[in-house]
Amino acid sequence: MDSQTLLIIFVGLTGLAVLLQACVLLALYFTVRKAAEAIHKRIDELKANYFPLISTTKDLIERVAPQIVTISTGIAELTEMLQSESQSVRVSVSEIMERVNRQSERLDALVTTGLDTIEHAGNALEHAVAQPVRRANGIVAGVKAAIASYRSSFGSRHVAYPDPDVGLDSEEVILR
Q1: In the chain, where do the E strands start and end?
Q2: d(Cα 5, Cα 11) in Å, to the nearest integer?
Q3: Residue 112 dihedral angles phi and psi, to the nearest 5°
Q4: Can you give the C-alpha Rg of the chain in angstroms?
Q5: Using CA atoms, how far apart are residues 55 and 45, in angstroms rounded to an integer?
Q6: How many angstroms separate the CA atoms of 152 and 23, rounded?
Q7: What phi-psi label fits residue 129: left (phi over 0), alpha (psi between -120 and 50 degrees) or beta?
């Protein structure tokens, strides 16, 4: 094989490789073209379905945005007003609690004074009444003791009372 034959084989193989490469590039072109058409079709579907939704959402946001700002401002003012009102309520509650404490301290002092006075009056009454009653009880006990002593010294004598059937005078008493 001479060099010319080798050159022809080499050129033929190169041509064949170039032709194969062209076929591959052509297949790649058709595949990319088909994919691009599918992507364009999908994009058109997305535009048809989602762009109206996006447009509607955008319009809604444009219409609602001023109202949201107004509501936010109103909420901020309401919060500020509630804070100032709660502060005044706190002050009022603390004043009321202070008054209640003062009144309860005053009531406690009145009740304590009243109870002390009642206790003092009870002690004075006990002293004024109980002491004479104790003395009277002592006197009564002494009299009872004297009577008991007197009876025991004359205990051997027996007093006989008349029988009502006998007919004695009520002044007759028989002593034995």
Answers
A1: 159-160, 174-175
A2: 10
A3: -65, -45
A4: 66
A5: 16
A6: 161
A7: alpha
Residue 115 token pair: 């109870």
Tokens 């009321």, located at residue = 96
- By CB neighbour count within 10 A (0-12 exposed, 13-18 middle, 19+ buried), where does 162 fall? middle
Tens-place pLDDT, residues 85-119: 888 888 888 889 999 999 999 998 998 998 899 88
Identify the sign of the CA torsion 140, 144, 149, 151. positive
Give mean pLDDT, residues 38-49.
Answer: 89
Farthest-apart Cα atoms in the chain, separation: 201
pTM of the model: 0.34
**The two structure tokens encoding residue 36:** 């691009």
Residue in the block written with tokens 């073209």: 33
- Whether the per-residue pLDDT at 61 is higher than 70: the answer is yes
Q: Give the pLDDT confidence score for residue 176 in this predicted structure.
A: 39
- What letters, b where the CB count within 10 A reaches 16 and e where it falls short, cover 111-127? eeeeeeeeeeeeeeeee
CA–CA gap between residue 18 and residue 150 (Å, rounded): 167
- 173, 157 in Cβ contact below 8 A? no
163 residue type, one letter: D
